[in-house]
Specification:
Length: 175
């Protein structure tokens, strides 16, 4: 029996030496290996077959889009998309033009002034006061404002490439 035991132990130790343990693969490597295996098993297709499959897929997507848009149109027509009343609002609300107060920095161009708007706000996370400035080009029809004046301006339609504001009044004259 001693003779029987020796070959078994040699055989098991020989198997361990013959088949070394494979290193563990990461999930990325496993996916790459499995993708490569399935790709090589796939039958080769001609360019015409790939093009036909692509056209069929696009046709299916186009039909799905058309159905979805028709559903959305029906939903809008029935007014189901508007909570509360069930009907869409009659008209969109008209917004009022914005007002800003600032200091005139430059009044050199004709009928145009440059106004500096200072903002001071508290940072949400750090709660430090953050200051910033914005410069607006403002239409001044009568050339009334001068450098250093405190003025009130109102939002308007585009008057030039940079001018989108009009002068309302001069609040405080520079000394």
């Amino acid at each position: 029996m001693a003779d029987d035991e020796t070959p078994e132990t040699d055989q098991t130790s020989g198997d361990a030496a013959a088949t070394p343990a494979e290193p563990a693969l990461s999930s990325r490597e496993e996916r790459a290996r499995s993708a490569h295996a399935t790709r090589s098993q796939r039958p080769a297709r001609t360019a015409e077959q790939r093009d036909a499959d692509r056209r069929e897929l696009r046709k299916g997507k186009a039909l799905a889009r058309t159905r979805r848009r028709a559903q959305e149109k029906d939903k809008r027509a029935s007014g189901a998309g508007y909570p509360g009343t069930g009907t869409p609002p009659a008209e969109p609300a008209v917004s009022t033009p914005q007002l800003r107060t600032g200091t005139v920095v430059s009044a050199k161009p004709d009928k145009t002034i440059v106004v500096r708007i200072d903002h001071a706000r508290r940072h949400r996370k750090y709660e430090k006061i953050v200051r910033s400035t914005t410069k607006l080009h403002v239409h001044d029809e009568t050339n009334d404002a001068h450098e250093g004046d405190v003025v009130r301006v109102v939002e308007s339609r585009p008057l030039s490439r940079t001018k989108r504001w009009k002068l309302v009044e001069v609040l405080e004259r520079a000394k």
